[in-house]
Each structure stands twice: as C-alpha cells, then as structure tokens.
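Support reply, case 0932

Customer input (verbatim):
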Amino acid sequence: MAKKPVGRPRNRDRDNDRQTAIMDASEALFAEHGYDGVTLRAVASAAGVDLALISYYFGPKQQLFDTVFQRRARILNEDRLQALSTAMAEHNPVPLERIIETYLRPLEMAQESEDDGWRNYCALLAYVNNSSVWGPVLMSRHFDAPMEQFVEALAVTLPHAERADLYWCYHFMSGAMSLTFANTGRINAMSGGLCHSDDFQTAYDRMIPFVAAGFERVCGKRR
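Our regenerated output:
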C-alpha cells in the first residue's frame, strides 16, 4: 500500500515569531486608536506579515482583540494572586493596606517595565476598563474571577462590611487604577509640574493608602 505524501513540516518557531509580532503590533495599535480605529490591514503592515495570516492565526478582528487582551491579563492575575497568597500565609487576617498593595503593585511593575508592550497594555487596559462596550465583556471574562478572591480577603479583614460596599469600593479603586495606568499627563499641567503621571512609584505609594482609607471609611473598622 502506497504511503501518503508527507507535507512540509511547519516551522513552529517561525509561527510563534509571526504570532508574537501580530499580537505586539495589535496591542500597540489598539492601545493608541481603540478597537474601532484599527484595521487588520494596519495590523498586518505594522507586524510585517501578510493580511491573510492574521485570520489564519487568530480568526476575526474581535477574536484577535480578545487574545491580545487576555495575553497579559493572565500574567497580571498570576502575579496578583501569588502576592495575595504570600500575604495570607504571613497574616491572618491580612492587613487592609497589604491586600490593596497585592492588587495594585503588579500594575506599577508593569508600568515601570522597560518592555514597551507592558506600557501599551496598560493603556489598552485603561481603554477597555472605561468602555461601556468592552468593559463588561473583557474585564468580566479575564479579571472577575481573580478579583473575587481579593473581595473574600477584604471581607475577612473588614468583617462588618456590607458585601455591596466592598464592591462599590472596588469600583472606585478601579477608577483610580484606570486613570493612573492611562498615564494621560493631565496631572503634570494641573499641578504646575509638581506631579508627573509617569512617576509610577509615587502614584502607587499614594494610591494604596488612599484606597485603603476609603475601604475603611465605607466598610467599617478593620480587625
């Protein structure tokens, strides 16, 4: 019986390089122009690949957008949950500011990274988190489950809190996060140069106690 012809083996390294190039280019373009302002042709041009390859690897534009958003969301979630796990191993209950810090510091690390991809992703995260179209879809899909573990830790530390108040306070914290990682530069002019939106360490050093005080004021005394 004759053997079936064997096709040329795929070069997986080349495939991976192309996929990474497409995602990096998409991330930068989506961060700058939003979902509607980006065409697949523009992505192909920026990534240096044929237009057909984008659909081949990622499917339609919406699926590409979701894949790009999910890529670094997974890393952020892992870093946050590892920090929370470490804090819970050291304290019972975990101090309020420590819980807030485990949630926020990974974003500071991302914004301070020398990898432009992380800076692009933070801008993309700000865009998605403030979108009435994408926020309920992508934020819920990729961040809600890990967020619930932080809410549970907060409930232990703030035992008198109403559940609704914990979510409201998280909502307000999310707004502060979004403005900070959007890095719009508005505070630079507003403060007459006293503050700079890209001074991420200073921003997070102040955001953490600010948010913790809000949780404590709204949710009651901590243990």
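We compared this against your earlier run and they match. Two observations from our side: The radius of gyration is 21 Å. The first helix runs from residue 12 to 33. Please reopen the case if you see a mismatch on your end.
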